[in-house]
Write the C-alpha cells for this entry.
Amino acid sequence: MSENSTSNITPHPLVEMRDICKRFLDVKAEDHVDLSVYPREIVGLLGENGAGKTTLMKILFGLYQPDSGAILVNGEEVTFHSPLDTIQHGIGMVHQHFNLVDHHSVIENIIIGDKKSSPRGIVDYRGARKRIRELSERYGLEVDPDSEVWQLSVGEKQRVEILKALYRDVKLLILDEPTAVLTPQEVVNLFITLKQLVKHGLSIVFISHKLNEVMEVTDRSVILRRGRRIGEQKTSETTKEKLAAMMVGTDESFVVPKKAVSFQGELLKIDSLTVKNDMGLVAVNNISLTLNKGSTLGIAGVSGNGQRELAEALGGVRRAESGRIIMEGKDITNLPPARLVEAKMARIPEDRFRLGLVMDFNIAENLVMEKHRQPPFSRGIFLSWPKIMESARGLIEKFDIRTPGARTTTHSLSGGNIQKVLLARELSMDPTVVLAAQPTRGLDIGAVSFVHRLMEDERSNGKGILFISEDLDELLAVSDIIAVMYEGEIMGIIPAAEATKEKLGRLMMGIKDSSPAEKTREVSAYAD
Amino acid sequence: MRIKLVKRPPLPLWKRALLPVWAILLAFLISGIFIALTGTNVLEAFWLIITGSLGSRFAFLETLIKMTPMCLTGLAVTIAFRAKFWNIGAEGQLYMGAMAAAWIGIIPLSSSPFIQIPVIIMAGFVAGGLLAIFPAWLKVKFKVDDVVTTLMLNYVVIFLMRALLDTVWRDPISGWPHSPSILPAAIFPRLLPPGRLHIGFLIALGAAVLCFILLKYTGLGYRLRAVGYNPQASRYGGINVKRTLLATAFISGGLAGLAGVGEVCGMQFYLIDGISSGYGYYGVAIAMLANLQPLGVILASFFFAVIFTGSQTMSRYTVVPVYISDIMQGLTLITMLMVLLLNRYKIKISRK
Ligand SMILES: Nc1ncnc2c1ncn2[C@@H]1O[C@H](COP(=O)(O)OP(=O)(O)OP(=O)(O)O)[C@@H](O)[C@H]1O
Ligand SMILES: [Mg+2]
C-alpha cells in the first residue's frame, strides 16, 4: 500500500481523506468528501450549520468510523479506533466544547492519559511542568500550569487544550470553531500562535463561520455544503463574498437594513442593579440602564466583565443583591423564570447547553418547554402531542433547523442547529422584550442575518432588544445605543451612529477619554 | 490484546428485542455454575424453577401474587429515578402504606367494600407519598443527599412500626405483635378464586399503564423528565423544579405505599413485621432491569417473581439454598445492564 504513494509530484500531503461517506440514520453527514492537508499550511473548513464540518473532523480524529473511504497519513492508509490511536499518528483536535476536568490542575489535565509522562507508573511532574512552560513560551500560549481548570477563563481553557495536543507532538491540529468563544484580543493572540505553529512545521485545520478570520489566517479553504465538498479556494485568490456564495449557494446580501422607527416610552428599566458571581464577588456593580420601545440596546465588553451575571439576573436565574428591574412599569426583580415568560420576556442565555436546552430531549420537547402549560399544547393535565409536533415542524421550517425531523434528539444536531432550536423557542413566544446573550455565536452567515432580521422585525414593531455580544461589528450593525461594560460597571453609553470600534475598544479596556471630571479615579486605576 | 468498547448506532428493533433474552440466558448459565457447585443437576434445578413458578395454576397464581408488590415498588423507583430523585426508600414507603391500611382497615366506615377499599387505597397512597415528600423536601430546600435520607427513613419507619406493634396494636387476645385483623369490608376481593390472587394485581398493572401515560402524555410527566435530564435548563425554561420534584416524590412514595396496602388487605389481613420480603429494594433492581420504562416494569417484576417463587420450590426439592434466587436476580441485573450497553457499543478485540 505504501508503494504507490511515491508517485506524487507535489509534496506529500500530511493527511489525506479520500471519498469519505458517513450516514447517521437518515442524514448523509458526509457524501464522498475528499480533504488533504499539506505540511505547514492552515486549511479553513467552511460550510453552513450542519454541512458536516465537525463530523468530518471527528472522523479524522477517530471519534467516528467512516462508512466508506480511506484516511492516509504520510501516504499510508490508517484506521483509527479511538482518539488515542489518532494522537499516536500525530493528529490532535480541540473541540468546541472542552473536555477538561475542572478540579484538576492544568498539568494534570495536559498529561492525563499520556504514558510518556509517567515512566514506571509514576508521574514526572517536574519534567511535565518544564515541558509545558517551554511550549507555552515558544508558541505564546500563556497559562499557569499549576492553577486549577475551574479558575481559568474560556480563552485559557482553550490554550490548555492546544497545549494538550502539542504536548503529544501532534503534526496536525484540528480547531473546531476556536474563535467562537474568544474575545477579540484573544483571537488576535490565537492567530499569532497559529502562525508560530506553522513556522515550526505543524499543519492546522481551522473551522470558523467568520470569513474575516478565514481570510486572515488560512492559506486555503475547503467548502462543504450539505455533506458534499463544493470546492476549494486559495485565500490569496478569493474574496469573502465568493466564499459566502459558495457556502450558501446564492449571493444574496447578508446586511439587514435598520428601519427608522419612532416609538415613545420605556420597556425595561434597570435601576442600580448589583449582582454577585458564583464566587460571591460583586460582578455587576450598581448598574442603571434603560431600554426603550422600538430600540436595540447593545451591551459591549470583554467577556468576564459582568455581562453573564447581568443576563442571568435579568433572566431570573441569579439573585439581584440590590436594585430593581422594571418591565413595562412592573417590578420583575428576582421573579422566577416562569413569571418572566408570562411577562413576555424572551431570554436567550449564553450557555445554551447548561441553561438553554435539555440536550436529551427531542427538538419538539425543547421547543414547547415554555408554553407546554398553555392551550393548545396542553388540555387539562394532558399534553397534546399532535399540536406540539405541528408547531415544532413549523418552527423547524421557519428557522431552517437542519434535522431529519422534530423527534430528533437535540444533542445529535450540529452546533449551529442546536442554537437555532433555542432561538426558535424564544423568538416564537411573541416577546415584548428580547434579552439575547451572544445569540448568533456559532451560526453561519445566513443564519446570523436571519436572526438579525427577526430581531429587526421585533424592533420595528416597537419591541425592545437587549443585545449582549462581544462582536463589535455585530453590535454596531444591530444596535441603536451601545453600553460598554467594564469590571461590572457601565463605562459609557454611546449612540451607535456615533460609535466606532476604536471608541468602544477603549471603553472596553476601561479607558474613559471623554468625561474627565467624574471618573478620573477609576481611569487612573485601570490605565497602567 | 486489547478489548475496547466502540460506539455504534442503535441496533435494529428486532435485535434490540432479543437483547434481554441473551441477558437472561447468560445469567442462567452463570448461576448454573453455582447450582452445580452444590452437586445438584443443573438442568433439573432449572426445570424445578420453571415448573415451580409457572408449571401449575397454583404456582402461576403464586408468582403473580409475588409480582404484585414488586411491580408497584418497581414503578415507584422508575418514576423517581426518571426525575433523578434517588428514592431508595420504597421499603419504608411500603410499610407506611401497610400501616395506613391496617389502621383504616379496622375503622368501620361502611359495610360496603366499595367505600372502605377506595378509602384505604387512598390512605395508603397518601401515607407512602408523604413519607417520600420529606426527603425530597430536604433535597430541594437544603440540598441533603436523597440516597442517604430515603434509605435511612426505611429504618425509622420499620422501628416505628415495631413500636406500634409492641404497644397499641398488639393483639389483645393472643399477645402476638401483630395488629388486629381488618374488617371484612376492607379485604381485597379475590381474582380467580380459589387462589389467593387479589385485585392488588390489577391495581399494579393499572398503575403501570397510568405511569406510562403520566410520563408520556401529561404535563407533569414532561416536567419530571425535563428536571431529571437538566434541572437548570428546566428552571430557565419556566419549570418549577422544586414543585416538580415534590410531586414526583409523592407519586413515587404513593406507588410504594400501594404495595403495602396490597400485602395487608390482600394477603395478611393484619399488619406484621416482615410483611415485605425486601420488595422495596427489589424495586430498585426491577426499575433498572426495566430500563426505567413503566411497561418494562411489568415484565421485569414478572421475571423477578418467577425466579423468586421458582427457587423456593427448587430449594424444597434439592440441597440448593433459597438464596440462589438472590444470586440469579443479581446476575440478571448485571447481565442486563451489560447487554443494554451493547445496544450502544460494540466490543472490539484487537491484537497489539
Ligand atoms: N451523533 C450524531 N447523530 C446523528 N446525527 C448527527 C450526529 N452528529 C452529526 N449529525 C448530523 O450530521 C450533520 C452534520 O453535522 P456536523 O456537526 O458535522 O455539522 P457542522 O458542519 O459542524 O455544523 P455547525 O456549523 O452547526 O457546527 C447534521 O445534520 C447533524 O444533525
Ligand atoms: Mg460543528
Notes: The longest helix of chain A spans residues 184-199.
